[in-house]
Amino acid sequence: MPAKKKASVVVTERYAPKDVKIKKRLGGGVLKELVIRQVPSGNVTHYALAYINPAIFSGDDGRVLGYDNSHGYSHKHHLGVVTPEPFTSYQQIYDRFQAEWMAIAIAYVNKGK
Questions:
Q1: What's the pTM value of the predicted model, to 2 decimals?
Q2: What is the C-alpha to C-alpha distance for residues 87 and 89, in angstroms, rounded to an integer?
Q3: In which domain, by residue range, is 29 found?
């Protein structure tokens, strides 16, 4: 009788730091991050980044900007509009998110001046 092959088990690690609250004078809002990676390869299987600020946008539960790969594809949320976003690497998505949310917050703060 041939030996049975063992099913390979995919081990993942979850990174979900505490939400970051942005000071009102810097635009306000909250930053959220969730990343799930395979171990030991480090391949990202799931990610979600969001800038939540109902003072800027009240739709989509206040999500002004977000990147995630829920629903089976990589996409961007911006002021309620969802568009496909090619996934190159998590670091590139993260860097783009950082630059975009900061530009949005700065524009919001400067709008009142």
A1: 0.88
A2: 6
A3: 11-111
